[in-house]
């Protein structure tokens, strides 16, 4: 669940309530009520991103006559306008990367603003490691962010990695705060030596120059994953899913199906990024031979090989 906490500033003109909540895929309303109306004014909604380079992330500008939406968030947003003093923002189809702080600001009149925070750390979900198809340690921080987003996730926070169930991964990966870590359940010489199990830390790294893997976080999806048996190339796997009104699944979607639906399929299948994986909820000798449940990976095979089925999502 998305949990919202709200902090109001300068309550003379804008009034808000204390919290908002919703799940991924839901619609939410971020409250902002005018206490009084100047004769000439505009209301501006922005998403606050302290590390953003360039213009601020404006979502909506409005006055008493018209409104204009901006960017990807704007395409999913509208003003509620429940009454003449209502400047609340309706935001549709919540995504994981909608997490953050949003500002409702009255401009060209009595300067005033209020802020609403949508926090994505609270929904149940799963952390998964992600590596570039070019190999180990290829992502800058910003490339890691983009890679997680492309796989239906976001970079994980430290608390999400700490809560990760059964994750034992010997490659270091970026987290949301720009630090680099890796979790170890079974200490071994090549993974930190004889230190106790836990999360190993490299600390903060240069976001533009240093390169590592990524730890991504995803939550429950609104669709479902299913397997299509066959011996497909990647392109044939794409077509097999399309014939069934679906598309090749993303890595995050497969992990969500494994984690939330206990999806278990002992067959390697193509995913949209060109990797081949399969989910195991009931470990057994003939399905990877690893005693722990998880999503197994065959890496990124030759896309023309006719060896694997397809994991589809719809």
UniProtKB/TrEMBL annotation:
What family is this protein classified in?
Belongs to the HAPLN family.
**Protein name, UniProt field:** Hyaluronan and proteoglycan link protein 2
The organism of origin for this protein? Salarias fasciatus (Jewelled blenny)
Q: Which GO terms describe its cellular component?
A: extracellular space; perineuronal net; synapse
Q: Which InterPro entries match?
A: C-type_lectin-like/link_sf, CTDL_fold, Hyaluronan_bind_Proteoglycan, Ig-like_dom, Ig-like_dom_sf, Ig-like_fold, Ig_sub, Ig_sub2
Keywords from the UniProt entry: Disulfide bond, Extracellular matrix, Hyaluronic acid, Immunoglobulin domain, Repeat, Secreted
User: Do the record's keywords include Repeat?
Assistant: yes
Give all residue intervals belonging to the Ig-like domain: 11-117
Q: Taxonomic lineage per UniProt?
A: Eukaryota, Metazoa, Chordata, Craniata, Vertebrata
PANTHER family, A to Z:
AGGRECAN/VERSICAN PROTEOGLYCAN, HYALURONAN AND PROTEOGLYCAN LINK PROTEIN 2
Q: What is this protein's gene name?
A: hapln2
Where is the protein localized? Secreted, Extracellular space, Extracellular matrix
Primary location: secreted
Which GO BP terms sit in this record? Answer: cell adhesion; central nervous system development; glial cell differentiation; positive regulation of neuroblast proliferation; skeletal system development
Q: List the disulfide bonds.
A: 170-191, 266-287
| Residue ranges constituting the Link domain according to the UniProt record | 126-218, 221-314
Which GO molecular function entries does the Swiss-Prot or TrEMBL record give?
hyaluronic acid binding
Q: Name one Pfam family in it.
A: V-set
